[in-house]
Amino acid sequence: MKVLGIMGSPRRHSNTEILLDSALAGVKEMGVEVEKVAVSELKIHPCMEIYACRKEGICSIKDDMQWLYGKLLEADHILFASPMFFYGLTSQAKAIVDRCQALWVRKHILGMGTENSRIRRGVFISVGATQGEKLFDGAVLTVKYFFDAVGVKYAGDLLIRGIEYEAQIRDHAMALQDAFRLGQQLVCPDTTQ
Length: 193
Prior knowledge:
By secondary structure, the chain is of the alpha/beta class. The protein has seven helices and five strands. The chain has a single domain (2-187), classed as Flavodoxin domain (Rossmann fold), CATH 3.40.50.360.
């Protein structure tokens, strides 16, 4: 079993990455292999909406997304993490979501990959500075559709408001514990701790 962690913050060692690392530590604690991808270190162009993917389910833009498609499809479970930027995912994280149009086409237009019976789950981790009631609403919906495109069931989230300053999440021990447990529950849903 393998879990893919996607770190969507443009900044390394961010509050988002700290939470993601805690969740990945929970996964490792269960004896499961993890791989983390920092999208800020990849060269991923935005979707150009040229619909080349409608022919064979393959995006014609040649960049690091071609490599990431393989990772997204081979992972048994996915942890997707992004801070909130203006009530949405970061542009780096959103580029990945948008480029998964090719996988959506494969599944829903071309009927490819629908025979896969393994159950894959994904969770969303996010932090935002404001206390806005609808802070995460748009991002959660976006991630749910992203997971559908890559063949993953949305299995939960950890959404934390009021986190603005560098490494501030370290002052929130409960949030770090919640992330750790979320990672464990992703790979073993019956885990109760």
